[in-house]
Amino acid sequence: MEKLNFDTVILGGGPAGLSAAIYAGRGAVSTAIVDTNMFGGQPSNYLELENYPGFQLIGGYDLMEKFEEHADKFGVNKFPMQEIKFVDLKNKKITTGEYEFQAKSIIIATGAQPMKLGVMGEKEFIGRGVSYCAVCDGAFYKNKVVAVVGGGNSAVEEAVYLTKFADKVYVIHRRNELRADKIVQERAFKNEKLEFVWDSVVKEIQGENLVNNVVIENVKTGEISNLSVNGVFPYIGMTPNVELFSGQLQQDARGFIITDETMQTSVEGVFAIGDVRKTPLRQVVTAVSDGAVGAVYAVKYIETLNYNAIKR
User: Fold this and answer.
1) What is the mean pLDDT of the segment spanning 155-177?
2) Catalytic residues, which ones?
3) Half-sphere exposure at residue 73, Cβ-oriented, CA atoms within 13 angstroms
4) Which CATH superfamily is domain 2-113+238-311 in?
5) CATH number of the 116-234 domain
6) What pLDDT score does 306 carry?
7) Contact indicator for 216, 201 with CB cutoff of 8 Å
8) Do the domains 116-234 and 2-113+238-311 match in fold?
């Protein structure tokens, strides 16, 4: 196994991680960015973004490609598609299937993933009617009927997107009003292919080889009913990707990493940025901001270590 030394290692190559890589590279510290997948993170799966400043409309993949090219300009060392086996935050060590990284600072940018409904049939039908990515799988539902579960921006935006393919899209929401931004709601309510199922939760996903039905319960009346659908897309929130180091630093009740305003975690020299940390808003623009702040203070931390080492 090859051993590599860097001033800072960034775990995660989404918008937060790539932003951090740019700022760390500009800070003239040796920087590596490591990811279990290709770089780009979740935005690479977004068909379009219309709320990233400077681009009225841009494909998610296209934007992330620009981020990566920008990081390349500053000589950032990239390690995509790594199987990360072990992370020791206190001693700043990261072990993958190919390398052992030793760092002076670690920046965690591992992001978050969609929460599961936790109902019978969900796990069994993943890839056979249950999907967490409308852009990835929407085309499979041409002329079919699907259900989106949730009421936030992601749920409603993906529901509208699915109407490009499906004949009908149900939006199942546990409340009687949406949480999505007003402009997103307005577009949805104008879409004749969308039908809203209010005050309801999914109790079970059913089918034979493929999904053909969801059982729903009205949370106010307790009434149980069925919706005949070909696909289910849950968008009920996010859960942080912290399995590799959970318990090594301070987290909230849901597992999100707690940081201060400099993105410093409870472990000295370890910073957390983007969707993986406790934050009131999870957007590409806030992830990029986190990356800039975290990297700048990681550089300051490394400079302090180097200065103290020289003094000794």
Assistant:
1) 97
2) 133, 136-137
3) 12
4) FAD/NAD(P)-binding domain (3.50.50.60)
5) 3.50.50.60
6) 86
7) yes
8) yes
